[in-house]
Design goal:
The protein is an alpha+beta fold and 102 residues long. Helix content is 39%, strand content 45%. A three-stranded antiparallel sheet has the order 1-2-3, with helices on one face. A hairpin with a 5-residue loop joins strand 2 (23-38) and strand 3 (44-57).
């Protein structure tokens, strides 16, 4: 009945730059825009976007830093997914309520 189209962007920026130009912390920004289409007509019926930011510390061990970066990305992705789910659920509830009121 529905088709969902999403666009996802993941960006990393370094924060806490030291005098020797090395970063001590970074943040991951995940942005998602999404459009819900009626599968029959192909017309968009709902669109929105979501964004989450998560940070992590840069460590002296490269592997540990990569694990921290991956964890920060996963946390931000999870937040975006939960927000998208909530927004879609609210839209569906409103859609059902308006259909029942007719």
């Amino acid at each position: 009945k529905w088709r969902l189209q999403t666009a996802l962007t993941i960006a990393r920026s370094d924060l806490g730059i030291q005098r020797n130009a090395t970063a001590t912390s970074s943040e991951i920004t995940v942005s998602a825009s999404f459009v819900l289409f009626d599968a029959t007509s192909g017309k968009p019926v709902y669109s929105n976007s979501s964004r989450a930011i998560s940070d992590f510390n840069q460590l002296t061990d490269a592997y540990a830093t990569q694990v921290a970066a991956d964890d920060a990305r996963d946390r931000a992705l999870q937040q975006v997914a939960e927000e998208m789910t909530m927004r879609m659920a609210i839209f569906m509830r409103q859609l059902r309520a308006s259909a029942a009121a007719r």
